[in-house]
């Protein structure tokens, strides 16, 4: 395995700390992060040993429920706008969920040992939930990685809401999983790919060190200035909008196509179901898409507790989340 980003060998997974209170999958702690056991056992080792990166690859990274679906849609629509104009009524995003278009590398490998990622044409647009330190070193050296981050309280609420609906699709049961339980576990960093604050710092620090290789996006800034952040993403991916495209409003058309309201109301996302490795009802990937919804679910005391944990953990790092208060 790669130095500095090594995956846990399969024979060692059973000896790693175990967390069984987060549905739908057991978590194992490795390299300071709580990773779904199935991903750590099968997906991560295969990512490291079987995935061959290309210089043209673009990897979209995100902590769960931090803007993943939106980033996938924006990146795909931008990268492929010549072949699929964003104003086309037959655009792939009008008939396919973003998660079926932009696939998670480690999830593909976790659920299938015959992932056909090599068959995808270049430039490949792929996704990961893995922390930066768990990416294969050759991926970090070869590919461009764009990471989106979100304020922890909002990400927590969105994750809990998603799990309550989606757990049965993975053979789990979250009916009795209360928000208080989710909150307490998250405060201890015991959630998929948590702790979130360490996850964000790794990608942020990488973006500071290597801005040509890592782009760090903030969900709240994307909400405030979607066109400006989209242009940053396009430039990073090597497909910036031309002056002529700007005059024709192509960037605005991409923002409109990928807006929550537009995607949420497409038939495929209202009544469709994920294909392949994510057999989740597509509607579960779309909720409010706003900043500050945490205030409708947690008390001021809970918010203060989590804020203090995050503040203490980030002390001296130079990084901070954008407040959504």
UniProtKB/TrEMBL annotation:
EC code(s) of this entry: 2.8.2.-
Molecular function terms from GO: sulfotransferase activity
Enzyme superclass (EC): transferase
Cited SUPFAM superfamilies: P-loop containing nucleoside triphosphate hydrolases (SSF52540)
InterPro entries: P-loop_NTPase (IPR027417), Sulfotransferase_dom (IPR000863)
Keywords: Transferase
Protein's UniProt keywords contain NAD: no
Residues in Sulfotransferase domain copies: 55-318
Family: Belongs to the sulfotransferase 1 family.
The protein, known as: Sulfotransferase
Lineage: Eukaryota, Viridiplantae, Streptophyta, Embryophyta, Tracheophyta
Name of encoding gene: gb22369
């Amino acid at each position: 395995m790669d130095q500095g980003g090594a995956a846990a060998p399969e024979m060692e997974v059973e000896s790693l700390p175990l967390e069984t209170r987060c549905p739908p999958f057991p978590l194992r702690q490795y390299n300071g992060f709580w990773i779904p056991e199935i991903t750590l056992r099968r997906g991560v080792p295969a990512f490291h040993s079987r995935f061959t990166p290309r210089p043209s690859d673009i990897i979209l990274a995100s902590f769960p429920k931090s803007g993943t679906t939106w980033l996938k849609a924006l990146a795909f629509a931008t990268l492929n706008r010549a072949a699929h104009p964003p104003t086309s009524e037959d655009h792939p995003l009008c008939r396919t969920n973003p998660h079926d278009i932009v696939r998670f590398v480690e999830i593909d490998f976790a659920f299938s040992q015959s992932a056909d990622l090599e068959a995808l044409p270049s430039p490949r647009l792929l996704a990961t939930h893995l922390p930066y330190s768990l990416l294969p070193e050759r991926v970090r050296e070869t590919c461009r990685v764009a990471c989106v981050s979100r304020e922890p309280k909002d990400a927590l609420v969105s994750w809990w809401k998603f799990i309550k609906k989606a757990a049965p699709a993975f053979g789990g049961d979250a009916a009795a999983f209360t928000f208080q339980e989710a909150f307490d576990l998250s405060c201890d960093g015991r959630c998929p790919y948590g702790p979130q604050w360490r996850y964000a710092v790794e990608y942020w620090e990488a973006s500071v060190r290597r801005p040509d290789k890592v782009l760090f996006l903030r969900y709240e800034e994307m909400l405030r200035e979607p066109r400006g952040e989209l242009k940053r993403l396009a430039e990073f991916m090597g497909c910036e909008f031309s002056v002529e495209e700007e005059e024709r409003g192509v960037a605005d058309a991409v923002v409109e196509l990928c807006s929550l309201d537009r995607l949420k109301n497409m038939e495929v996302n209202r009544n469709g179901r994920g294909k392949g490795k994510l057999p989740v009802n597509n509607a579960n990937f779309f909720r409010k898409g706003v900043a500050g919804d945490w205030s409708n679910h947690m008390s001021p005391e809970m918010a203060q507790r989590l804020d203090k944990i995050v503040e203490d953990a980030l002390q001296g790092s130079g990084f901070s989340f954008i407040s959504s208060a």
